[in-house]
Write the structure tokens for this entry.
Amino acid sequence: MTFPLQDIKEEEIYLIMASAAEIRNKNIELIKVLLAKEYNVLVITTNQPYDILKKNYEKNGITMDKISVVDTVTKYAIGRDHEPVKNCRFVTNPADMTGIGIAVTESLIGLKGKKVSLLFDSVNAMLIYISSQNITKFVHFVTNKLRLMGFSGMFLAVEKGLDPDVLTQLTTFVDEVVDADRNHPGNP
Amino acid sequence: MDTIALAERASHLEAMADSLNELLAVQEKVVAEQSERLKESEALLKSILMGSPTLQFVIDKDHRVISWNKALEEYSGIKETTILGTRNQWMPFYDAERPVLADLLVDGMIEHLPEWYQGKFSHSRLVEGAYESTDFFPRMGHSGTWLYFTAAPIRNANGAVIGAVETLVDISQRKLAEDALWESREHYRAIIDNSQLAIAVLDVNHKILMVNPRFSELFKKPADYFVGKSCFNEFERRTAVCTHCPGVRAMISRKPEEMETEGVRDDGSRFFTRNQAVPFFGPDGALKGFVEMVEDITERKRVEKALKESNDRFLAFIKEAAMRLKNPMEVVEQNISLVVDDIERGQFENNDVLLQLKIQIRNLEQIRQNIIELNKMIVNHSGDLSEASRKFLTE
């Protein structure tokens, strides 16, 4: 559906569909919108390591002041612990659902009382390590947490990469599905 | 004695003689009339006996044939004139001389009946003192004849036996029809009793008339238990005719109808069946009920279900595998493209490029593992792969 990202509502949860080529830009676009709406953003990254993500944000004029990160890839890629970072939790590997769950829960608790939105980037990258069934369970777990805590959330996904049955299941956990590619000028 | 007295006596004697003559004349007339009536009666009796279409003969107390009717003449080929007065009544029926049923009755030798008609005789229900029997006579006709015969004693006014009459009916056609019917029934019984299909015969009101052994085996109850019961109650635990009943459809369409359903036993166990109902009719074409043939397809259903589940699992795995290969490849492709773009623009730091590439190597390692997992599933699902192919795909 056509949906300007600026129109996102508080405490609502969205599944944002974008093309593979555009997904990194959508991440930046969403962060900007969320920060402009004075959200504190918790980014769960399953593809870009924290260091790269931070540089990309900074390159796009985004400060990390109100951003915290759960990084699932750095530790796995470099094979050792990353030096501690104040606003980032490093999980052992992208398949460690328990570790990710704990990191997300702790991060959200740390943001309690603030205006918070979670940005999950991305469902598709996580599919390298986790079955669709476990991803569905994980998304369900996270959306429940967000609703209980009154936070909003954005789950980035490449539509063409998801099986329609999986996509249908994911849509049941969110309030709206947004086709981000159709928000470009010229796209109806 | 004087002359007058003598004349009177003579006159009396003459009168007596006249009276006697008169009486004798009357007697002669009566005897003649009785004789005539007797002759007429005999002629009538003979006419009745001779004219009867039933094979019949009569013997006297000396076992001599005193009547041998036309029908029997025709049937046996023995003329009345040649057999009357003889004791050859056995001749058309047997190879050697022996008593026929009438002979035994004339002699009152009832106790000897079993000796000559073992298991084949019985009291007549219609004629007192008569006996009847059914037997096959190989000598009679082209290929033997079945006769149903009855012998009855003939008694005089004092009740003494003075002869016996024997009537015979050719029941060969009926016997052949009965045998054919019996044989036909036996064929059907053999088929039905040994059929792997559970078979029930039902009337138009869905009352069970009979079931075969396979049916009782399927429902784990004796066959006679079902007789008179309602099928819908026994087969599916319903209180009214099943809406899906193929019998109802068969009776309406007057042709075979079939459907698949689920049966329930007393112990609650369930089984799947394919039921075919075939209507049957009376000789007048009136609908009499239907035959229901039930095939236990529980095993087939189980195999079908297992196959479907297996296929569903396989399809789900393929879909999952496709998703977990297509997506990651695209992710890796995009990530490497971005690294290449950064390098081309000269906007890169070695450590960042190194980290990005390390992640992509990890991703590719995982994708390779995913491919192996997919191959294992395919190998397990395909039975006809060589050992070498299996090894190549799964290691």
User: Anything to note?
Assistant: The first strand of chain A starts at residue 13 and ends at 18. Residues 184-188 of chain A have pLDDT under 50 and may be disordered. Chain A is about 40% helix and 20% strand.
